[in-house]
Amino acid sequence: MIPNFLCQTHRKHYQQHPSEALLAWDNWMSAGHQSVLNQDNERAFRYYGSSMEVAAILMEQSTQIALTAITPFERYQLAGQHLAELCHRNSHEEMANAIVEKLNQVLVNQRYHPVTRATGAVKKDSYEQPTPTVSMRVH
Fold first, then answer.
1. CA distance between the termini of the chain
2. Domain of 32?
3. What is the pLDDT of residues 20-41, one digit of tens each?
4. Nearest partner of 5 among 59, 52, 57, judged by Cα
5. Which of 26, 39, 47, 105 is the most buried (most CB within 10 A)?
6. Model pTM greater than 0.90?
7. 50: in domain
8. CA–CA–CA angle 109, 23, 17 (5° rounding)
9. Number of structural domains, the chain?
């Protein structure tokens, strides 16, 4: 199970102010990267998790926000990949796999192939397009 990172008050705030949600995502992803570099995994976990949640809010409102260089879907995937990788590197395999499953749900909704586990094994199905996989590497 994946914990909630945003309280109801902040979730509602970002739903009402998508431009602030975009800024929060940018700041939190940057802070998450810096926390990883400083080997502060607990702080990185909170930043990446909050980034993933705010990106989910942005995906729900994609028609209401101005176009940016990166889509809400890409923001969600990127934050989730970093969060799953962090969990994987810190031997929290159940959490990493739960995050990858959540990412796969979004991928399936976007008509992509899902990954079966955090190790990157790919499920076969009837799609014929190239199979994107969820990277477990922090870039």
1. 25
2. 8-109
3. 999 999 999 999 999 999 999 9
4. 52
5. 47
6. no
7. yes
8. 75
9. 1
